[in-house]
Amino acid sequence: MAAALGPRAVSLELGGKSPLIVFEDAAVDAAVDWIITGILWGSGQVCSATSRVLLHADISEAVIKKLLERVAAVKIGASQSEEMLAYEGPCMGPVVSRAQYDKIWNYINEAASAGVKVLYGGDVSAVASLGEGYFVPPTIFYDVPTDSRIWKEEIFGPVLCIRTFTTEEEALAISNDSEYGLAAAVFSADLERCQRVAKAFRAGIVWTNCCQPAFIQAPWGGVKRSGFGRELGRWGLEEFTSVKQVTSCASGHQWSLW
């Protein structure tokens, strides 16, 4: 709105629907740690949340088994309650508002009604006894159609979509087939493959064998509908500066245009 009133410098970091690829040679426990971080941190209300997970078919069963075990141990409740503060395991609080709560449940209920397989969560009765607060349990969908709303649209909640793949090319094609391009992650013991995939991702932020770390020294921002411009580091400072060109003519030099 402000930019439309006249010339304005604009830098926008917008939404995301970030992919996370796990190849067959990845360390399962570590991959699961980061998958959980990528979708449950901030109750999923993180712009860079890796909400689309692509598992190689050879490792998918092992990753899903461990993922379900780990998610089942996550305690949900009011973040500042005595019970939650005393809890030493993984925990997750409510989402920010009634509007966001309703939006997330609409996505969940629509996908479940359409027959998308629910591996975990998706049941409002599981959090009904938690009292006041807009609680949404971690919800995991499997074999999600790539044309479904939960796969394509940013939900901004603890909702994870999983698909399997068999080749690197397939995984990259599915990952990049999105109107968003904020972040992406790749997990593999093959560092050359990690570098190759990182380069092929159409995203402004890429992680290899990790997910979500952000450093003030490094640029932060996306491509496509995830925005333009960069925050943090010297790149963020440059968004608030303009470059001036100063040209001097050497003594005795004649340009001779005419």
Question: Which characteristics define this entry?
Answer:
single chain; 258 residues; alpha/beta; Aldehyde Dehydrogenase, Chain A, domain 2; two-stranded antiparallel sheet; 8 helices; 13 strands; 17% strand
Topology summary:
Layout: E1 12-13, E2 19-22, H1 28-40, E3 52-56, H2 60-72, E4 75-76, H3 82-86, E5 91-92, H4 98-113, E6 117-120, E7 139-142, H5 149-152, E8 159-165, H6 168-176, E9 180-181, E10 183-187, H7 191-200, E11 205-208, E12 223-224, E13 227-228, H8 233-238
Parallel strand pairs: 2-3, 2-10, 3-8, 4-5, 7-8, 10-11
Antiparallel strand pairs: 1-13, 6-7, 9-12
Helix pairs in contact: 1-2
Number of strands: 13
Shape: globular
**Alpha carbon gyration radius:** 22 Å
What is the CATH-assigned architecture? 3-Layer(aba) Sandwich
Question: How many domain modules?
Answer: 1
**Helix/strand/pairing class, anyone?**
alpha/beta
- What is the makeup of the main sheet? 7 strands, mixed
Q: In which order are the strands of the major sheet placed? A: 6-7-8-3-2-10-11
Strand content: 15-25%
CATH superfamily: Aldehyde Dehydrogenase, Chain A, domain 2
Question: Low-confidence runs (pLDDT<50, min 5 residues)?
Answer: none
Mean pLDDT: 92
Count of individual helical segments: 8
Order of helices and strands: EEHEHEHEHEEHEHEEHEEEH
Q: What is the end-to-end distance? A: 47 Å
CATH topology: Aldehyde Dehydrogenase, Chain A, domain 2
